[in-house]
Design brief:
alpha/beta, AMP-dep_synth/lig_dom, 28% helix, 7-stranded mixed beta sheet, 6-stranded antiparallel beta sheet, Luciferin 4-monooxygenase, Rossmann fold, metal-binding, globular, oxidoreductase, GMP Synthetase, Chain A, domain 3, 3 domains, EC 1.13.12.7
Amino acid sequence: MLPESANIISGPKEDISIPEGSVGKYFLDCMKKRDPKHVTLVDFTTGNTLINQQLLQYSLRATRIFQGLGIKKGDIISIVAENSLKYCVPELGALYIGAVVHLLNPHYSIGELKHALSITKPKLIICSELSVKNVMQVHKDLQPINSKIVLLENKSENYVDIITFEDLLNVVPHIDPDSFEPEEINTLEDGAFILMSSGTTGLPKGVLITHDNLRAALNYLCHENYLGVSDEDTTIFLLPFFHIFGVLIQMLFIACGMKAVILNKFKPDIFLTSIEKYKATKLFVVPPIILFFAKSPLVDDYNLSSVKDIVVGGAPLGKDLQENVTNRIKNATVRQIYGLSETCGACTFQTYNKIKLNSVGVLVPHLYAKVWDPQLKQSLGVGKVGELCFKGSMVMKGYYRNMNFTKECIDEDGYYHSGDIGYYDEDGNIYVVDRLKELIKYKGFQVPPAELEALILTHPAVKDCGVIGIPDERAGEIPLAYIVKQNEVQVGEQDIVDYVAERISVQKHLYGGVKFIEEIPKTASGKILRRKLRERFWTSL
């Protein structure tokens, strides 16, 4: 930690062990050194596998496909597909030649897809049977964007004329890995990925991640004090590949050899069966899965003793929830990470030897943080609550084709202003309170929805919840809780209101009441989409 007078804290100054240069070249070298028969990916549904030599060869052939389509360094390739065995093949091929990979949610609506593709204007769109209809419609609407379209794997009955990437891979001749040289790039300037921001407060923006950003992230992810992943580890891959958390875990199985068993959807019995069958050692999950581990009676019916490490990202966890899962899955350590697409994933980590509940851990190597008071225009000291800001080699280059918003979010000292409210303690542990724009203003008090949600989730009848502020003439805003009940459990609205009132200060009571709903709207990473809850409130009036 830097001198307190500076009101800045820093992560460890460890040497970066990842070689300089393209991360594509680094991945290529890792695969060339690994056992060719090592199983890298397993599709749980079909049982099909992808071994190391196949991934290596397919990724090399992908470069020939791209070059044949006229794609060169700096061009953009969009992938609009769900998780699959060959998803990372075009990603790797693009990284080898210096193209930029734009990852998109295959469940995007036509409007969302049109917005995202209008930002990047890709040369090639790789889609799936799930997304092809919307992709074709958007491609037509966005003319004269001259994007080529291919399906990633399976042909579509309704679009039989569209060739698949898999077919193209099969006609490209064998490429000798030892004679292949990836494109030379500027690691500080050249983009590797464009990821769409979560859109929790507005339209998503294109987050431009450089090769150097990824190199910095890999440096700590591979470190034994953080993840310590090896080719003896197995994970169940439920995270969407298009999300920054999913990108980081893809990098781990490519760089470190961890086996990944792919699931496309969360189905409780299948998820638990996959852990038991493949003896998963590490799980990378979002808060809804932790909630499932804590609350579902199904968990007790499966042998989860192989699980040693559960890493949670996407949104902060309450102390009770983290302790509950730690006590339930006996052999596992439950650890939180915190980060954003804009910081190339995790910028804090609960390390094995330093887990402080309620915190999201300490800063990772080569990262600096300050807590900013937007009114006083100054950084704050230990224990003072303000906006969390980060600076270092993992901070994005900027928002693609949006210099104005980039300047709004990255200050003149190079700090990215996260929009999250938090503080740090004397040991450098960081605590996330809530989103700056989501705090409820009750009679001058700031009420964090996340604090109320953590409390409400301790009620045995509550399966999930989301809290928003609604207008009130006297107070300005008052908290309203949307709640999903546990199956076949009887609980009334007043029961929840009273439960909260007995356990928290008066300004944080649920003066807006409780409404029971079927599902809490969330992003792919588990963040609550409060704007959807606010829309629900206004349409119900």
